[in-house]
UniProtKB/TrEMBL annotation:
InterPro entries xrefs: NA-bd_OB-fold, Ribos_protein_bS1-like, Ribosomal_protein_S1-like, S1_domain
Domain of life, source organism: Bacteria
Keywords: Ribonucleoprotein, Ribosomal protein
Domain spans labelled S1 motif: 20-84, 102-168, 185-254, 271-340, 357-426
A UniProt-annotated Pfam family: S1
Family: Belongs to the bacterial ribosomal protein bS1 family.
Protein name: S1 RNA-binding domain-containing protein
SUPFAM superfamilies in the cross-refs: Nucleic acid-binding proteins
Length: 543
């Protein structure tokens, strides 16, 4: 090739790369501030950083680019190229088309500016994002990376464009579509945004936050959202309810789990003995967990065979207990259990254990005005009327016993069918009346102390029995505690006791009579002695 041919070829090639033309080139060199291109021209193309879409370091040798020729330098044999300009031209057309179709675009929020934010589309085309459309709260950092936007305004004036974007419009469209398309039973996935005592808030998407209440966390209602969720973690949930008017969504986790109540009547047939853990104790009974999500109630009437006591004395939370399944209501998810039936009925063998006449030991459980309830064992108690508490008369049981006191008693009656036992505390000791009757009889003199005053007399306590002293038979007014000695003037048996009346007056009269008799006898003796003496004197005179 001679010089004239090379010159002609160069002029030809030079003419082909006129300013503003588009060329295809390959990256051959890269520096910190520019990228060098071989685009088939005789010289080397150069793209400065400000005309690149990316940073120079983000390009690779051999990478193909579409470029626009900005300027050529014949003397140096270089051409100034731009990657941005052909891309801008292309983007303007694409953005306009997307705007007209209502489609979304992607861009990066670069910085905050007056009234909003600057967004770069494809890193080259600037757009405005108003603060009210940004979904960026005041004080929040600008989100990193690409975000989706909707073009809400597009104006082109020559080479200048006014492009306004919105994230809020996307959110509003999604919210509208969500509440029109989604329905209860749909499964969604969201991010746990916050956890409260009553449940967790889950962000389904921007603008839609659903509530996962604690009642929808598990069939085991002791498990809460706090136990199974964590802020920032993804969770799959079922839509339980949608309130389209108020834009509220109720979510459920347990709805995605197998329902433990589905076959509950087969797993826990009525009449069977099952084991469970005491979950909670309430004034009216306690709950037993048979399996997670399946709790049954042991009503207080199903705890004790006899008089209801303190539930905490029988079981504690966490105890493993055996119970009998009494009733299953699958629809209402209720199980009725019996603790006492699992323990066995103590009245079944009560006649063998507590025959009439036997001496037993129990604890005073209740004091009534008419008597006391004595607990013999768990589920078996007996009643001791006030008349059977003591051999002597008492006005109230507290004079003899106190609650919690251990006492001995004799079984005087047993009715298995009615579950009743009558007891006698006094019969557990010797009848003091019998002992008294063996020691004293009518006419004997006894001494005791005034126990109390009654309407027409006094009750006198003599050797642990009570005798009666009528006021008409006293010789002075008495006070409680005064010592009294009297004569038994009435001694009559009345069933197991005796009616005994004493008299001070008759005792005094008795003593006076005795004194009179003694004086009479003394005088008679003295008279007789005098007569004998006189006779002896007469006989002495004759001699």
């Amino acid at each position: 090739m001679d010089n004239s041919f090379e010159k002609l070829l160069g002029e030809y090639l030079f003419d082909e790369v006129k300013r503003g033309s588009l060329v295809e080139g390959v990256v051959v060199r890269i520096s910190e501030s520019e990228v060098f291109i071989d685009f088939g021209w005789k010289g080397e193309g150069l793209v400065p950083a400000e005309e690149l879409v990316r940073s120079p370091k983000d390009y690779g040798i051999g990478e193909k680019l579409t470029l626009m020729v900005l300027k050529t330098n014949d003397e140096e044999g270089t051409a100034l190229l731009s990657e941005k300009k052909p891309l801008l031209s292309k983007l303007r057309n694409e953005i306009k088309e997307k705007y007209e179709k209502g489609e979304k675009i992607k861009g990066v929020v670069k910085q905050q500016i007056k009234g909003g934010y600057l967004v770069l589309i494809e890193n080259v085309l600037p757009a405005f994002l108003p603060g009210s459309e940004s979904l960026i709260k005041q004080g929040e950092n600008i989100p990193d990376g690409f975000l989706e936007f909707k073009i809400i305004k597009f104006e082109s004036r020559g080479r200048k464009q006014n492009i306004v974007l919105s994230r809020k419009a996307i959110k509003d469209e999604f919210v509208k579509r969500f509440f029109s398309e989604r329905k209860p039973g749909d499964v969604i996935e969201g991010i746990v945004e916050n956890i409260e005592k009553f449940g967790a808030f889950v962000r389904i998407v921007d603008g839609i936050v659903g509530l996962l209440p604690n009642s929808e966390v598990s069939y085991d209602n002791s498990i809460t959202a706090e136990d199974v969720t964590e802020i920032g973690k993804s969770v799959k949930l079922l839509i339980k309810e949608i309130d389209r008017n108020n834009k509220k969504v109720t979510l459920s986790l347990k709805a995605l789990m197998p329902d433990p109540w589905l076959n509950v009547e087969k797993k826990y047939p009525v009449g069977t003995v099952v084991s469970g853990t005491v979950k909670s104790i309430l004034p009216y009974g306690f709950f037993v967990t048979l399996e997670p999500g399946v709790d049954g109630l042991v009503h207080i009437s199903e705890i004790f065979w006899g008089k209801p006591g303190k539930i905490n004395d029988v079981v504690s939370e966490g105890d493993v207990v055996k119970v009998v399944v009494k009733e299953v209501d699958k629809e209402k998810r209720k199980l009725s259990l019996s603790y006492k039936m699992a323990k066995g009925d103590p009245w079944e063998e009560v006649e063998e254990k507590y025959p009439v006449g036997n001496l037993v030991t129990g604890v005073v459980g209740t004091i009534l005005t008419s008597g006391v309830i004595i607990d013999l064992e768990e589920g078996i108690s007996g009643y001791c009327p006030i008349s059977e508490l003591s051999w002597r008369y008492i006005e109230k049981p507290e004079e003899i016993v106190r609650i919690g006191e251990k006492v001995k008693a004799v079984i005087i009656d047993l009715d298995k069918e009615a579950r009743r036992i009558r007891l006698s505390v006094r019969k557990s000791t010797e009848n003091p009346w019998e002992k008294f009757s063996r020691k004293y009889k009518n006419g004997d003199v006894i001494t005791g102390k005034v126990l109390k005053e009654v309407k027409k007399g006094y009750i006198i306590l003599v050797e642990d029995i009570e005798v009666y002293l009528p006021k008409s038979h006293t010789i002075s007014v008495k006070n409680v505690g005064d010592s009294v000695t009297g004569k038994i003037i009435r001694f009559v048996q009345d069933g197991e006791i005796y009616r005994i009346t004493i008299s001070e007056k008759e005792l005094v009269e008795k003593e006076k009579l005795k004194e009179l008799q003694e004086e009479t006898e003394k005088e008679r003796t003295l008279s007789l002695e005098r007569k004998i003496s006189d006779a002896n004197s007469i006989n002495s005179g004759k001699e």
